Amino acid sequence: MIVAVHPAESSEGVADGLALGGATVTAAPDLVPEDRRINDSDLLLVELGDQPMRRLRELSRIVESIGLPVIVVASVEHLLLMEGVAGISDFLMTPVDPLELRLRLQRLTITEPVDHLVEFKDLELNPLNYQASLAGDPLDLTFMEYELLRFMVDNPVRVWSREQLLSKVWGYEYYGGARTVDVHIRRLRAKLGEERSSWITTVRSVGYRFG
Amino acid sequence: MNKQAEYVLRTVEERRIRFVRLWFTDVQGFLKSVSIGPTELEVAFEEGMTFDGSAIDGYARIQEADMLAKPDPSTFQVLPWRNEEQVARMFCDIYTPDGEPFSGDPRIVLKRNLERASEMGYIFYAAPELEFFYFKDSGPVPEVLDRGGYFDLTPLDVAQEYRRNTINALEHMGIPIEHSHHEVAPSQHEIIVRYTDALTMADNIMTSRLTVKEVALQHGIYATFMPKPLEDYDGSGMHLHLSLFEGDVNAFHESGTPGGMSKVGQAFIAGLLRHAAELTAVTNQWVNSYKRLVAGFDAPIYISWARNNQSALVRVPSVKKGKPSSVRVEYRAADAACNPYLALSVILAAGLAGIREGYELPPEVAADIHRLTPAERAAAGVKRLPETLSEALDTLERSELMAEALGEHVFDWFLRNKRREWDRFQHHVSQFELETYLPVL
Fold first, then answer.
1. What is the ipTM of this complex?
2. What values do phi and psi take at A133, rounded to 5?
């Protein structure tokens, strides 16, 4: 698990909790959506510290485009500031208990199996029977094509790198290399047909985005 | 049972698939199929389907006839050209009754060669240019549909619609097409399939050939991959674009070198060139294949490489700046009537031998080789590809590398079978001989 932390210097309890949770920590000195360090992470942790207003304002600007779970660390007197800020997945009060942080990290990064109907425009993915349809007509996908499409439809807007897609969709036991992702994206585009192939966009030298 | 197989079972049920065709390939590259119903599918995944191997060219001898076909669930596809009932297909690997991978199965031969590549750290990628002709029917006198030419877009190209339907069907089956066009000869067409790993590509070539023929049949015409059906026009080849990747890195690419070609890429080309004559019997396996490999029709004859020379056997196509992943080697001799599993196997083996043994890449031959005199060619060290199937078989038979790449079973059977084909051809008195000799001798 990769956790981006802001500010770059974590407080003691947070640092211990991250270490306890076995997280790979990457510093995010600026809360800007272009930051690859944020985009390549699995979770963003923001400590409000002594600049609560500014950090919440910056966070609220990027929270939608990064599409990551966000955990906020705040002191008791700053808790109310979080009211109405969308996209915060969880929070912790200072002083941070490392064990509590570890548990919250785990809860946030376990992907719950999706069991609802996934829809995008006229595309439907039904996880109960693994069937896909386009404008009501069945769309014949292989297992990996289905899993990749489901993941992308379920996590739209944000850009996924090939490595992230490999680990999220294929799982870590797969060694085929990131070219596999390109090949599968092409196959999906071919099956979606000309009009809809633009649903999946290639972001040069980064990866792919859906929607 | 793994998740992929479960997914197939579920899809068969949901989509009310009536038949699942289990596909495999004989040694000469003919597609074979066993149809099973949905109820037998689970058994097929777990134990394999028993069939009589002695009925398949190049498989078992009578005394070891029973074979098992085990479907590969990752290749499951519903076939798009049967509307009235739902039919799907899966490619199979063939096993002996003891559960051993069967060495006569071309798909297993390719898998073994790919394993050798992966032991050296490489994944093998390929993309073919498939050429074929549309004729009015499959009768012995080919009748063309049009008089169109290269890239023509005129009402002459009546086959546009067939080609479009073919591409739609292929894309439905998850085979992305880069582009297609009318080829040089009348009624000749080309479909360029996008690269993928070599095993999937061999499956894709088998599927593409069938799809081209099926769609033609639906339109009441005939499509053929015969290497040289029209004496006076270009034949149908299958140029293969090849690359090796180490993980995500193109092992053929190195910045600052001519053509962006790395040492590994150069050694791969050197391997292709040194073993080209030995592998030709496999990439060009019919008597007719050698009617294509003659001067004057854009097909390679001499063993040489070049960056931009259409007469070379191996070409290094120019690549757009900033696309190191597309640095590749194009092998231009193979024809589309080969067995793609075996053709990719021998080509890979030749290239890997070049890397393993550190072959030196001979100098590029930029001149039009056909215009060089024999003496000039000899001075440049340029040899000729085999001129006939018989010569190609002699060269193959002497090659230890090819025996290893194909495995003993396929190597022996292939030589035996192809010698018989050559003998039959030798017995034949052709129209050419009657017209040329009878009046004067």
1. 0.79
2. -145, 150
